[in-house]
Amino acid sequence: MLRKFKVSNFKSFENVFELDLTNTNNYEFSKSSIKNGIINNAIIYGQNGVGKSNLAFAIFDIIQHLTDNERNEKNYRNYLNAFSKEDLAHFYYEFIINSKVVIYEYKKLDYKTILFERFVIDGDELIFFDRINESKATVRLKGTETLKTEIDNNELSILKYVKNNSDLAVDEKNKTFLSFFAFIEKMLHFRSLTENMYQGTDVGSVDILENIIDRNNVQDFEAFLNKAGIECKLGITTERGRNTISMNFGSKQFPFIQFASTGTLALTLFYFWYQTIKEKQKVSFLFIDEFDAFYHHSLSALIVEKIKETGVQFILTTHNTSIMTNDLLRPDCYFTMTKKQIRSFSKSTQKELREAHNLEKMYKAGSFYVE
Fold it and tell me: For the chain, which domains are there?
């Protein structure tokens, strides 16, 4: 699980910006939103332009140099903060992996050029490479004793290099090191606003409707849409020599894509990913930006419930205040974000929040203050 994340000199984040998922309260309601003392379900609010989308891109920068998964390089073209006097962007992650605290931090000149890396398990620094001041990395994992640690390619992560070129001994730290990679490789970020975009977990692109057919999930997709308030009868038809989903009206069939509204298409994208998310061990961490931009407020709550059922750790961003309820999450799981910082509702007020409080009403009245 992700515990903490810090970033500076990246996109809109000039100074250190920290997301702390360990700062919880001892509420006796909505307990499923907390796992092992860490926030498992988070929803972020903030005005347009505060950097909610950039926070997602910052968290998922890690997949560029540690995995071969899908990435979205065009969103990283304007990389360093325009106002910062620093030369490098700095990223800091804390995870719980195999019940151990894993810290990974690195510094980059741009999306591909990595000049500093540090990897720590339970306070023990196992990998360190400062390419600016040193020509060799320090690697203290068992099985790397004869590994060449002088690397000229500054686009190659020392962690990825160690993973791919070492015969690691079987011990707890090496297991945690490999489990760390497994976690990163299963991270998923997607959104459907001006374009359908995703990063992480899989490589390449697929036809969404054809994928639902291949998984034999057409009837399940139909039931999902009906539960979401979209009454329809679905089937399978052929268009241009390929199978696709149809909307059936009696004996007539029409391609689904021709009748689906913008909101229905957004739901279809969610369902496509939901097939993967609900499969155990397929997704480790989920970030959906503007997750309900095209949804009715009652549908937004349904989507949150659906994701909660999977057990995956997730962060959602939205402007929809109707889902600010203690029935869905709790005050330490709702966050308000400004350009300078992000805090949970419970840490943004001096009031002692209780289950009966109307969080939406308090939010609109300005009760949750963040500088």
Answer: 2-201+284-364 (3.40.50.300), 202-282 (no CATH)
